[in-house]
Amino acid sequence: MNINLKTMNIFHGFIFFLVIGIHFCHSQENKTINALSKNYDWNARFEYSETDVLSFVYQWFSGFDHQKETGFFLKFLDDYVQMNYPDFEIKSKKDFIKWYEGVESTIFWNRHYLKNIKVKQNEDKTWNITYDVNWKAKDYSGKKYDLLIFQKLKIVRYGDIFKILQLDAEVKK
Asked: 55-111: per-residue pLDDT in tens?
């Protein structure tokens, strides 16, 4: 194959402009995709909605469903957390760690199914959430659980994150 120098230079020039063109088109596309709407209410971008609260709650339970590491849960807890489970009272992150170590050493598998969720925003940047959770689990001995638990949750917003202030749980059946 006999390719002269002039043909090679034209070919390299073509490739160069092709690459530059693709990059330009792609960068313009990204600017459009990532651009903020100039017409949307600026304050509304930073107000949290019921959807944000529900997302937080579902992330919390998803962590239990996948038995995430303890550190995953600690980021959800306020420094002055107060949690009352039927079998354990939690007044600190240290208490939570102790409780969760018991869960990890006992529960082989579990799932949480949330129902009847109600969300109420308070004027002090806190939210009250109530719901029923159907907890299904199996422990390491093979014993199965299927409990309906009513929970009241109070969370607070710090900047861009929510933290749990209080959780009260009682077994319904």
From this structure: 999 999 999 999 999 999 999 999 999 999 998 999 999 999 999 999 999 999 999
Please calculate the CA angle 118-72-81 and round it to the nearest 5 degrees: 60
Q: Can you read off the two tokens belonging to residue 147?
A: 């409990």
Contacts of 151 (CB under 8 A, 6+ apart): 130, 131, 132, 133, 167, 168, 169, 170
Dihedral sign, Cα of residue 100, residue 104, residue 110, residue 111: positive
Q: What's the token pair of residue 151?
A: 């929970």
Helix, coil or strand: residue 51: helix
Q: Which amino acid is at 56?
A: F
Percent of the chain's residues with pLDDT above 90: 67
Percent helix, strand, coil in the chain, to 5, is: 40, 40, 20
Dist CA 15 CA 22 (whole Å)? 11
Question: CA gyration radius for the chain?
Answer: 26
Distances (CA, A) of 8 to 14, 16, 19, 152, 154: 10, 12, 16, 73, 70
pLDDT digits (tens, 9 = 90+) for 109-119: 999 999 999 99
